[in-house]
Amino acid sequence: NLMMQQALVPINLRWSHATNTLALIDYALAGEGVHFIEADVCYDAAVGPYMAHAATDITTLLEKHQNSFLSWLDYLTKKRTSLSQPGLKLDFKMAEAVRPSIDRLLQARYPVWLNADILKGPRGFDPVFDAAEFIQAGLRHPNATLSLGWTTGVVKRGADSIGYSKEMIDE
Description:
InterPro entries: Menorin_dom
Order of helices and strands: HEHEEHHEHEHEH
Protein name: Menorin-like domain-containing protein
Largest sheet: 6 strands, mixed
Number of domains: 1
Family: Belongs to the menorin family.
Pfam families: Menorin_N (PF10223)
Domain Menorin-like: 12-171
């Protein structure tokens, strides 16, 4: 469709970030020309994957059930129309969420990006993902784009800014 043709020029991409609730899906789709919906995925053993930027954002099982990845994805799929067919970028926050989410995404009929911070970056913490396992899991989805990132830390005011080292990039 025309919207995705325009999206082939990266500067034209419009994103809806942290679209982790059904209300935020409605808001994103009501706007003009959102090409990709980005959302964050956590995991709870009792619930499975659920939508939250951090595990501490949602603390009760009821809230986790209400924000389950399955209900979120079903809602998004039903809301997509011929006029608004954004792709999906999932930002995985917990390694346990990856495989069950990808299993469900195999039915998706639209562009999917899978993101995780799999490498340690400047001032970063150790990743919660095994890089090879994330890549292997992501490759199970034949139409997904893998978006691989580095963990980063906070740069305090007045501190020297450090960038990515050659070793980080080569890894």
